[in-house]
Amino acid sequence: MSASPSMIKLEIFVPFSHLNEICNALQESGAGRIGHYESTLCFSPVKGRWRALPGANPYDGEIGKLQEADECKIEATCSSENLSETVKAVKKAHPYEEPVINAIALIPV
């Protein structure tokens, strides 16, 4: 694999209430383009768990209390050249103070 992969897989965790906003942000930023297709992604239900620490401004839950909630995990690809723009668009549309966005380098097959 080269030092700089050409494609990145994004994993984004979001409440179901904001699924469409994140999908739109991904599409508008050019993520999810594969060959002659665009807006490709998948999503699945997950259970999120966290504890907000003092100084946090949680979207859901209370400071110091362990929380759980149903969330959606969105998976989409983007080019490495477009990663910064895509992450910026997702963060702008995301309701969480600290959104979980994992960027994973892909090996072409």
Briefly characterize the structure.
The chain has 2 helices and 4 strands; from the N terminus they run βαββαβ.
Characterize the main sheet.
Answer: 4 strands, antiparallel
Q: Average pLDDT value?
A: 94
Shape: elongated
Q: How many helical elements?
A: 2
Distance between the termini: 11 Å
Rg is 15 Å
| Class derived from helix and strand content | alpha+beta
The amount of helix comes to: 10-25%
Q: How many domain modules?
A: 1
Question: How is this structure best described in words?
Answer:
- The model has no long low-confidence stretch (mean pLDDT 94).
- This protein has helices at 19-29, 83-93; strands at 7-14, 42-51, 66-79, 101-105.
- The chain is elongated, with a radius of gyration of 15 Å.
- It is built from two helices and four strands, in the order βαββαβ.
- With 109 residues, it is α+β, with helices and mostly antiparallel strands.
- Strands 2-3-1-4 form a four-stranded antiparallel beta sheet.
- Helix 1 (19-29) packs antiparallel against helix 2 (83-93).
- It has one domain: Alpha-Beta Plaits, CATH 3.30.70.
